Amino acid sequence: MTIVVTGATGNVGRPLVSLLAAAGARVRAVTRTPRAAGFPDGVEAVWTPDRLPDLLAQSDVVVLAAPHTPETKRLIGPAQIDRMKRGALLVNIARGKLVDDDALIEALRDGRLGGAALDVFSQEPLEPSSPYWDLPNVIITPHTSGAMKDYWTPLVALFADNLRRFEKGEPLLNVVDKVAGY
């Protein structure tokens, strides 16, 4: 099985890539800033976003783990869905605005895509009238893909460490790049 993961160097993508590669999947990583080192064994290739159309045509599963930026808004729309393998699966654990909902719903209804697992939506909470609820080839989860056991302990530790750093005038950890948008 060939899987493409967007946002493969991020906090969500990197552990996912490791798990998929360890499970024997052929993983192709897409990242805005490819690095020669730092990917787990088993990653077949690291590609830049401009190569995504080629990867869509070759992949059985497309996993979205990229941040929402102006460049990734509607990353998957009608043209990208038309490039995907017939029967491919789409998994969105990133941001809802990466997907054109109307195009995805149409492709799921007519069988071009085999299914979707969606943890995020362009509008949250997902409206009760959303067609996603009635599609038998869609798995819906309540925006919990980033949840982990004991989420608050490391978060509070990071905050406390950054507070100490701030008081000492030291560089902070996990700072958002306002130019990149994440």
Short description:
The chain has 182 residues and is of the alpha/beta class. It has helices at residues 13-22, 52-58, 78-83, 101-109, 152-168, and strands at 2-6, 26-30, 43-47, 61-64, 88-92, 113-118, 138-140. It contains 5 helices and 7 strands, in the order βαββαβαβαββα.
Features:
182 residues; alpha/beta; seven-stranded parallel beta sheet; 7 strands; globular
Structure notes:
By secondary structure, the chain is of the alpha/beta class. 27% of the residues lie in helices and 18% in strands. It is built from 5 helices and 7 strands. It has helices spanning 13-22, 52-58, 78-83, 101-109, 152-168; strands at 2-6, 26-30, 43-47, 61-64, 88-92, 113-118, 138-140. The chain has a 7-stranded parallel beta sheet, with helices on both faces. Helix 3 links the parallel strand 4 (61-64) and strand 5 (88-92). The protein starts with a strand and ends in a 14-residue tail after the last helix. The model has no long low-confidence stretch (mean pLDDT 89).
